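Researcher: Can you fold this with pyridoxal-5'-phosphate in place?
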Amino acid sequence: MTTPLTTASEVNDWTAEGQRYLMNTGRRAPITIVRGEGSRVWDDTGKTYLDFLAGLAVLALGHSSPVVLEALRRQGEELILVADTVWSVPQVKLAKRLTELSGMHKVFFCNGGAEANEAALKIARKYGKLHKEGAFEVISTDNSFHGRTMGATAATGTAKYREPFEPLVPGFSFVPFGDIEAIKAATTAATCAVIIEPIQGEAGINIPPDGYLIELRQWCDEQNMALILDEVQTGIGRTGKMFAFEHEGIKPDILTLAKALGGGVPVAATLVNEKFDVFEPGDHGNTFGGNNLMTSVALAVIDYIVDNDLIEESATRGEYMLAKLRSLEDRYEFVKEARGRGLMCAIELDNGKAGDVMQVCLENGLIMGQVRDHVLRMLPPLTVTTDEIDEAIAILDRALASVE
Ligand code: PLP
C-alpha cells in the first residue's frame, strides 16, 4: 500500500482548524475522513464507517474506484485540459454517449449541478426570447433544491436559502410539488419553463404521485414551454434507471446531470432536445467544463455502469434496502414512512429525533444524510452489497431502538 497522505504523525485537530480556516457553510460532524474504499471510509483515528451518503449521491462506483483511478491516470498522463477553442476527444465521446443513452440531442458540459441548472435556465429564457414573445418566467416547486448560484438559488423553493440573498434573479414562482393543477394555475403567457426534480432529493426523497410528470410533460407541450428536469441527484442510475424520467416514459426538453456522472470527480452536463438547441457562440461557456480529464473519467464510469448491468443490479439492491427500511416502519411507531426508488431511500420519523438517530449511527459506524429533524436519507454507492445493506440497517435499527 502507498503511504497515506494524512498520517498519524500529522497529529491535528482538523475540526478546530477547519472551523478556523473554512467559511461556515456546512454543519459538519467532528469527524475527519482520510481514506475510502468501496462503500467504506476511515477517519483519522482509524475508525471505519459505512458511507451510505456516498459524497451525497456522487460516488456511483464507491470510494477510490479502480475505474476512476485508471481513467484519471491514463487521461492525466495524456492531456488534462484544452481550451474550448478546439475539439476534445473525451468530451465529444461523452456527449455522444449521453445523447445516445438519454435520447437528447446535444450537451453542454460544466462542473457542478448549480452550473448545469444555470445553463438550463439560460436556454429556456433564450428560447422564450426567440420563440415565445420574450417569455421569461419559470415555475419551480416548493422545497425544491437546484443549487447555490444566484439563478439556481432563485429557482430553489426553500425560502431560507433564497431570502438572505434577495433581490435574486426575477421571474420565479413556486407551487406545491406533485400538484399539476397548481402548475397550470401558475402558468402565464410569460412562462418559458418549469424546472423540477423527478424525485425531490434535498427535501427528503419526495416521490410525486403517479402520472404527475406525464401530465406535466403534456402541459409543457401544450403551452410551448420547456420541461427542465433537474436530474443532478436522480441521474446516472440512482433511482434504478439511468435517468429517473425513464420510469415515467417521458423525456424532458432540458436535462441536467452532475453528482454521479463523474463517480467522484466534478463534471456536470446540460442536455437539450432539438427544439431547445438555441445556444450560439458567445451565449455561454465554461473554462473547466468538460475538460479532458473529467469527461474521460465520466466516460469510464458510464461504460462501467452499462457494461456491468449495474443499474439493474442496483435496482434490485434498492428494492432489498427499501423492504428492510419498511420493516422498521412496523417495528417503531415513530417511523412514519420508509420510501424510495432504486438506491435513493429515506425514512421519515415523527418524533423529531432524526438528528439523534444520525448521531448514534455515526458513533456506530454508519454515515447517512439528515433532512431537518424528520428525515434520514440513504444514498449508498451503486456498487453496495447486500451484506453492507444488512450491516447498515442493523446499525440504524439499534439507533432507532436507542431513541425510543
Ligand atoms: N440540483 C439538485 C437536485 C441537487 O440535489 C443539487 C445538490 O444537492 C444541486 C442541484 C446542486 O448541485 P451542486 O452542489 O453540484 O451545485
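Model: Folded with pyridoxal-5'-phosphate in place. The chain has a mean pLDDT of 96.
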